[in-house]
Design goal:
Elements lengths: L76 H22 L23 H5 L13 H20 L9 H10 L17 H4 L1 H4 L15 H8 L17 H16 L23 E3 L1 H24 L7 H24 L2 E3 L20 E8 L4 H13 L7 E8 L4 H10 L4 E4 L11 H13 L11 E5 L5 E2 L3 H5 L9 E5 L3 E2 L14 H14 L9 E4 H6 L10 H11 L3 E4 L5 E3 L5 H19 L13 H34 L8 H18 L8 H25 L2 H4 L20 H27 L4 H25 L3 H29 L6 H14 L26 E9 L6 E2 L62 E2 L59 E8 L21 E2 H17 L1 H7 L2 H17 L1 E4 L2 E8 L2 H6 L13 E5 L5 H21 L2 H20 L4 H4 L4 H4 L5 H15 L2 H22 L11 H12 L2 H15 L5 E3 L5 E3 L5 H15 L7 H21 L19 H4 L50 H15 L5 H5 L6 E4 L3 E4 L2
Parallel strand pairs: 3-4, 3-6, 4-5, 8-11, 9-12, 13-20
Antiparallel strand pairs: 1-2, 6-10, 7-12, 8-10, 13-16, 14-15, 17-19, 18-19, 19-20, 21-22, 23-24
């Protein structure tokens, strides 16, 4: 090590030069560089003589060193010990000059090399050590101790007796060799024997193992200073005198004369008026990458806000909730904008110039640095380190320094400590008088000393007077002044120089409180420096005394005096420089109580500033940019304590109550992805990968500390009037930290953690049981995300052993990153898809075209369908009837005979019954389809064998009419158990009060006839109607399991419901372009129904069906391939067909209403006239049509007829406005409730057999009657509320146990939408519920079930339906059960728009042709068409609003309050 203190590194660079990687020093106390002091001057004695003073590194020169006398011949043990000690010191300096490290955290992380002279705290986290040159990397903890241990080593010397060294010849020689005076003390001989831990005990704050350390010793530090560099002390100095600045001016001038040889001050030297070299002027540069990040964030923010306002706030009654959340999000975005701006610029000359060729640092002006170290009750072991480091750190050659310990605690030990130093530039200050109600003791303490130093007018203070402030625990590096003071040469307006902070006890891998604050020190503060903003941080800074006085000293009205001082300086146009090097190291609070107390104090101070006349936003002297930047600092606290709890509450509110503040749709997915992606980019933009974790800790700390910020705002506003004045609380240091308990700080985190855990469990259960709600899934993800910071705080408070806690933090960081990205992805995956409702409406109408038969029009739009069953323009008509004979076993009927296959064979399991032994009148044919004896006409579709033997038929007991059994579940009413009779309806199914009729009703019809007396045997038969053939061409095949059967009841039902849908949503059909096609289908059905009722020979007959039930169930053939005539069966209305007649009358009346509205009044009149005649015939003789046509009971069995008559009368009332029909409605309504409700109403079904409930909805539309509304609401309640008749699948489809088809669900969905249009604004919640429920069911069949259940529409629709024409292969290939029903191939033709029967009570749809789930029919699509039209006219975003109702706790205007998990 040369005399100049520089040494060459392996790469040839000079150690000690600015910018050299090897010049980096550890941030520790007491480290002095190996640069010699200026001639005639020592760091602590500016008034020393001009004689050369050797550097500490020269203490170990050998005997042959020039200028020294030869060694004493009697060199004793003391001299050997001294040599060993000095060699030890030289070794330590060599290590410091050849290796550069920064104090690491508790974990001892390796430190990466930086281009600046001192590594930043982020290098601790990089984990990628890069040694300087070829030097071997050292352990960071060891290096930190080496660079800070010199003070402790020297302090140990006096404790070992150095002060009492004996004056012997050897000592005299040693004094001469070392250049020491008579009063200077040599180092004791036992220093070199101290252990390394003893030498380096300072940084650990512990007691040395040798037991030599004693801070209370009055002589230890005196000996230390005497033995260091030959410093001389004033034995009479007491350390209590604070001299004004002008008293020291003469001394400083003398020092300059001694140093420079010229006592005449240079022009302006006394006030700093010197020229500013270009390289010292602040030079800014645009940060390209940072600017790109900032621009992206700004654009994303404004895009997000615009999209959120336009597309995601359609929340109805929850609009306030959405606005609140958006406002908080905007506060968070606005708070991040200044940080984004800070990334756009940087200062390129943010470090001082390099030393000269001799390694000496000089400034342009001779500054007097007055170091102020305020303290209160901090332990002496903490304070002494800072004082000693401040005294030993090297100042520029032409500057001097005085250290003032400002003790507000009046600690005798601290006083003795300063007195023991016995140096004039170490001053103990105490005894100030506290003002009543004093808030900020630190500010008042510093101001007290500053006013004593600078009395009078602050303008008279020279610019060379500089104050340096260190907190009691902040230990400066040895080169602190050399790096900081030259920055004042950047201009006379440079009023402050700042430096970052770091901490020796920091664990960078588990820094959940973000003490490292890389986000601020390495990114925000450099941006402030470039933009000209002053952000003082309270310690490790320099401030010109004139600027300090100009700002009114430290503000004492706030706890954050540093922040307020920066504002005051900026208002007065002072500038600031920032040194981007860690030049001091302190002690961070590591227990929870102290961390919360410290951050609470900071936030209180900022709120005090904001809620006062000192608010920077309204202060004069600040530019708009400065107002915004200062104001955003306070805005960040608002963002933390508003955003963090709100964003924790939102997922929980969603799970429990279903309320989500964002309408999740496509645009929501876009804006969330863009904005939060840009936010992640902004938050994780770094210069080094080693900073990523610290950036993550920034967000974690805000989530942890939000409650402290909230309390701070309260204390700063209302609390100061309620709870009293705010006082300054010192952060505990050293052993003071042991007694602090975190309970008051972690209880809120524990509460949220437990609450979120419970909510997450219930939410997962709720999700698993369906229906799946997009907001619910997203909320579960973000609830898990919110758990992480709270868990980290609790883990930190309970058990934070570094080895374990660091792993926990690493896992949590990865987990939060994954959950954030996964949540954004889920928004795209799960956001509610928008369905093309107009296209679905058109497709559903097209399906009706595919089911038409007869001479089809050329513009049908179904290319694969052709005219079929045109032979039915001339149908042979059979009259179905029952023949009754005496018997003793009750009423019995034979089952319908089987039909033969095209090959003549019979279906397995069926047998041909021979004709019963009945007497048949000559010339009267028996029922077609029943084999008869020779000479009796048989069914044209069944051939019998002459050799068939006669045998009596089996019996099926038929119940009496008044006890009609309920049909089994499903559309097909098979008489599996005809004896099941419901004795009483469920509660609430009957109205308590019914309004009287508006006019005198006709005489009530007789009740249903009693069963045949004596158990007579009744056998269904048919005879040929002698009226000749009927023209029954047209209509639809009814489909389902009956195939090509043309049953009048489902055709009438479908026509009436389609007409109702058109009448309810005429505009919607017109808008989607389906009006013409639907009108064509309604006319097609009406034309056919006009033909189904005819008067013959004084009797009126109504068509029951065309085709044999058995044949059509068994046979698989194309419609176009059916060329043989099929039998048509009619029933005599005089014998009772009220159910069928009422349905036909309703369909014709409904169609007349439709065509009257289109202007086709002639056709409408025809339909209406026919409807009236059919209705009259139906009411004349009451009865069930299926009693006469018993075979139809296998597929379309009727269980009631009063509801059908009320249904017909209601439509006639709508078509004619004749109150007589309304009176009939009342009459049949009452009779239905009296005789039929027990066997039908409890099912709450809406299909061809149950029209009581839809009749209520229709009458509610037309009359607004309270009873009809009440009954309609009861009906819908039974479907909507899961605790009644309806149930739900896991994915949300409502089904009725008595009518489990999708068609039945769609019928009810249509009724709900239609009733919602009737209700007034006073029932807005009910209307909303009806529409949401109807929309949910429609969305289910379009794809929310996971697949579409509408053929040819949506994602993964059914492809194997039980439709003969669609499934059968192309002609001329044979179509039969094998090639059709049993074929695994997809349908040959897409049966577009057909709604399948569905999987009943499950979501597991099996796309298998021979499954019940794939049946299709016109009765399923009729209500579906109306429901699709109803949802197509709903507002955009309606479904997103509806999703707000899928919480665990639900409060419905229909179902009331209930828990649904």
């Amino acid at each position: 090590m040369g005399a100049t203190g520089t040494s060459s590194t392996p790469d040839g660079s000079q150690d000690g030069r600015y910018g050299s990687p090897d010049r980096r020093a550890g941030a520790a106390a007491g480290m002095a560089p190996d640069t010699p002091f200026a001639q005639g001057q020592t760091p602590l004695r500016p008034d020393s003589s001009a004689g050369a003073s050797p550097a500490p590194s020269s203490l170990g020169h050998g005997p042959g060193t020039p200028g020294l006398p030869p060694p004493h011949p009697h060199t004793g043990e003391f001299q050997g010990s001294l040599r060993r000690m000095t060699n030890n010191l030289m070794e330590m300096f060599d290590q410091m000059s050849s290796k550069s490290v920064l104090p690491s955290g508790a974990g001892g992380s390796a430190i990466g090399q930086r281009g600046d002279s001192v590594a930043t705290i982020a290098d601790l986290e990089s984990g990628d050590p890069k040694p300087a040159g070829d030097a071997e990397s050292m352990n960071p903890v060891q290096m930190r101790r080496l660079t800070t241990g010199i003070v402790d080593v020297l302090r140990q010397l006096q404790a070992s007796g150095g002060a009492g060294a004996v004056e012997d010849p050897e000592i005299v020689v040693a004094r001469h060799r070392l250049g020491l005076g008579k009063d200077d003390v040599l180092l004791p001989d036992n220093v070199s024997e101290l252990s390394l831990d003893d030498k380096l005990s300072l940084i650990s704050g512990g007691t040395s193992t040798s037991g030599k350390e004693s801070y209370s010793s009055l002589n230890s530090h005196t000996a230390l200073l005497k033995g260091w560099g030959g410093l001389k002390t004033d034995e009479d100095y007491k350390g209590d005198t604070v001299h004004p600045w002008y008293v020291d001016l003469a001394t400083h001038t003398s020092s300059l004369r001694d140093s420079d040889g010229d006592a005449t001050p240079k022009p302006g030297a006394d006030d700093g008026d010197h020229g500013v070299p270009t390289f010292m002027q602040k030079q800014r540069k645009i940060n390209i990458w940072g600017t790109c990040v900032a621009v992206i964030f700004f654009c994303a923010f404004f895009f997000y806000v615009g999209i959120r306002i336009k597309y995601t706030l359609g929340l109805g009654s929850l609009l306030w909730y959405g606005i609140l959340v958006l406002a908080v999000e905007m506060i968070g975005g606005l708070a991040q904008m200044p940080y984004a701006v800070c990334l756009t610029m940087r200062v390129v000359n943010c470090r001082p110039p390099a030393p000269d060729e001799k390694g000496v640092v000089r400034t342009l002006a001779p500054y007097h640095i007055r170091v102020l170290i305020p303290c209160y009750k901090e332990p002496l072991d903490v304070v002494s380190k800072t004082v000693m480091a401040a005294l030993f750190a090297t100042v520029p050659a032409n500057c001097q320094r005085t250290v003032y310990l400002l003790d507000d605690g009046r600690d005798p030990e601290k006083r003795k400590f300063i007195h023991s130093l016995r140096v004039p530039n170490a001053v103990y200050v105490s005894g100030r008088k506290r003002a009543p109600g004093e808030m900020n003791g630190k500010s008042a303490n510093i101001n007290n000393a500053a006013r004593a130093l600078y009395p009078g007018d602050g303008a008279a203070i020279p610019l060379t007077e500089v104050l340096c402030v260190f907190d009691a625990d902040q230990v400066p590096n040895a080169d602190f002044y050399q790096k900081m003071v030259p920055m004042l040469d950047g201009g006379q307006d440079v009023g402050m120089v700042l430096s970052p902070q770091t901490f020796y006890n920091l664990n960078p891998e588990g820094d959940v409180f973000n003490h490292a604050n890389v986000h601020f020190w390495d990114y925000t503060q450099p941006g402030y420096d470039a933009l000209g903003l002053i952000s003082c941080t309270g310690t490790n800074f320099l401030v010109r005394a004139r600027a300090f006085a100009d700002a009114g000293w430290f503000p004492e009205w706030t706890l954050t005096e540093d922040f307020a001082l920066g504002i005051e300086l900026k208002r007065r146009y002072w500038q600031c420089r920032y040194v981007q090097e860690y030049l001091a190291i302190g002690e961070a609070p590591d227990d929870v109580r102290n961390c919360f107390q410290q951050r609470s104090r900071w936030s209180k101070g900022h709120f005090q500033t904001f809620f006062s006349r000192h608010n920077p936003v309204i202060q004069s002297g600040l530019s708009p940019l400065m107002r915004w930047m200062y104001g955003s600092v306070i805005l960040a606290y608002f963002s933390a304590f508003l955003g963090t709890p709100l964003l924790m509450l939102v997922p929980m509110i969603t799970v429990w109550f279903g309320s989500f503040p964002i309408v999740i749709n496509f645009w929501a997915a876009v804006c969330i992805t863009v904005y939060y992606g840009a936010t992640l980019l902004l938050n994780y933009y770094t210069h080094s990968f080693g900073h990523l974790k610290s950036m993550w800790f920034t967000g974690v700390s805000n989530c942890i500390l939000w409650y402290a910020f909230l309390k701070a705002m309260y204390r700063s506003t209302l609390g100061r009037y309620i709870d009293g004045s705010i006082v300054f609380k010192v952060t505990a240091k050293g052993l003071q930290r042991m007694g602090a308990l975190p309970l008051r700080d972690v209880w809120m985190a524990a509460f949220f953690f437990v609450t979120m855990i419970v909510t997450l469990i219930f939410g997962l259960i709720h999700y698993s049981r369906g229906p799946a709600s997009t907001p619910l899934v997203i909320s579960l993800i973000f609830m898990a995300l919110n758990l992480v910071p709270n868990y980290l705080l609790l883990q930190y408070a309970l058990f934070r052993r570094p080895a374990f806690f660091n792993i926990v933090c690493r896992v949590c960081m990865l987990l939060m990153t994954f959950l954030t990205i996964f949540g954004i992805v889920l928004v795209w995956v799960l956001y509610p898809r928008s369905y093309n409702f107009p296209a679905a409406v058109n497709s559903s109408v097209v399906f009706m075209n595919t089911q038409r038969v007869g001479a089809l029009p050329n513009d049908l739009g179904v290319s694969w369908r052709g005219s079929a069953l045109t032979q039915e323009a001339s149908c042979v008509v059979w009259v179905a009837y029952n023949s009754t004979v005496s018997g003793s076993q009750g009423t019995k009927f034979p089952p319908p005979p089987p039909a033969a296959t095209p090959s003549g064979s019979l279906s397995p399991g069926l047998s041909v019954f021979p004709p019963p032994a009945l007497a048949v009148s000559p010339g009267v044919a028996t029922s077609p389809g029943v084999a008869t004896s020779p000479g009796v006409a048989t069914s044209p579709s069944v051939a019998t064998s002459p050799s068939t033997a006669a045998s009596p038929p089996p019996s099926i007991v038929f119940p009496p009419l008044t006890s009609t059994p309920p049909p089994p579940a499903g559309r097909r009413r098979l008489l599996d158990n005809p004896f099941v009779i419901l004795t009483s309806p469920p509660p609430g199914t009957l109205p308590s009060v019914f309004p009287p009729p508006r006019s005198s009703p006709p005489p009530p019809p007789p009740p249903p006839p009693p069963p045949p007396p004596g158990g007579a045997v009744v056998i269904p038969q048919a005879f040929l109607l002698e009226s000749g053939p009927w023209d029954l061409e047209g209509g639809w095949v009814t489909g389902m399991d009956a195939g090509a059967l043309k049953a009048t009841l489902p055709i009438a039902f479908s026509t009436a419901v389609m007409a109702w849908g058109y009448e309810s949503y005429t505009a919607a059909f017109s808008e989607v372009g389906a009006a013409d096609d639907l009108l064509s289908n309604i006319r097609w059905g009406s034309d056919y129904l006009l033909k189904t009722v005819q008067a013959v020979g004084g009797s009126t007959y109504i068509l029951s069906r065309i085709g044999s039930v058995a044949d059509e169930e068994l046979l698989w053939r194309r419609l176009e391939d059916i060329t043989a005539p099929r039998p048509a069966y009619v029933v005599d209305m005089a014998k009772g067909a009220s159910d069928l007649g009422g349905s036909v009358a309703a369909a014709l009346a409904a169609s007349s209403v439709v065509f009257s509205g289109t202007g086709d009044t002639a056709y409408a009149a025809t339909l209406l006239a026919k409807a009236k005649s059919v209705y009259a015939a139906s009411t004349a003789n009451l009865g069930y049509y299926s009693v006469q046509d018993w075979n139809i009971s296998a597929v379309y069995n009727s269980s009631t007829f009063y509801d059908d008559l009320a249904w017909g009368a209601a439509w006639l009332f709508k078509a004619t406005a004749d109150d007589a029909y309304l009176s009939d409605v009342y009459d049949y309504y009452v009779k239905h409730l009296e005789f039929e409700a027990k066997v039908s109403d409890f099912k709450f079904a809406f299909d061809w057999d149950n029209v009581f409930w839809p009749a209520n909805v229709l009458l509610a539309q037309e009359t607004g009657g309270a009873t009809f509304l009440t009954q309609s609401e009861l009906y819908l309640k039974s479907w909507i509320c899961s605790n009644m008749a309806a149930n739900y699948t896991e994915k949300g489809r409502a089904y009725n146990a008595f009518s489990a088809s999708l068609g039945s669900t769609m019928n009810t969905a249509f009724a709900a939408l239609a009733l919602a249009d009737v209700l007034g604004d006073d029932q807005a919640d009910t209307v909303f519920t009806y529409r949401c429920w109807g929309l949910a069911q429609v969305r289910y069949v379009l794809g929310d079930s996971g697949r579409s259940l509408t053929v040819g529409v949506g994602k993964n629709p059914p492809t194997r339906t039980q439709d003969r024409d669609a499934a059968c292969p192309e002609a001329p290939q044979v179509c039969n059960r094998v090639t059709g029903l049993l074929s695994p191939e997809e349908d040959t033709h897409v049966l577009e728009g057909s709604l399948v029967y569905g999987s009943g009570r499950s979501d597991d749809f099996a796309d298998v042709r021979d499954s019940t789930a794939t049946r299709v029919g016109i009765e399923s699509n009729a209500g579906y068409i109306g429901a699709l039209a109803g949802v197509s006219q709903l507002d955009d975003g309606m479904w997103e609003l509806c999703l707000q109702k899928f919480g665990i706790y639900r409060q419905s205007p229909i179902c009331g309050s209930f828990i649904n998990v």
